[in-house]
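Q: Got a minute? One more chain.
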Amino acid sequence: MSLSKQTVVDSITVTENGIVLYREATRIMEDGVKLSETYHRSSLTPGQDLTGVPENVAAHCTTAWTPEVIAAYQANLAAQVKPEA
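A: Always. Here it is, folded:
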């Protein structure tokens, strides 16, 4: 009987405004048979620091986050901030 734990990114989605959503699955395996699986979801906004992000997710971010996408995302954030009266 051999138990092992695997963590894999099993889903990556890029939204229309450039936000990258990804899901990591943690699987407990016994002799190649999955005993359990849990999920952790994360999101990244255009231009965010990618330190510690899984390599395949960072690659998607680098591709999706063109300077135009980052500028549009930041402009959208600035437009949502209401000035104090």
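A: Residues 18 and 42 are 14 Å apart (CA to CA).
Q: Perfect, thanks.
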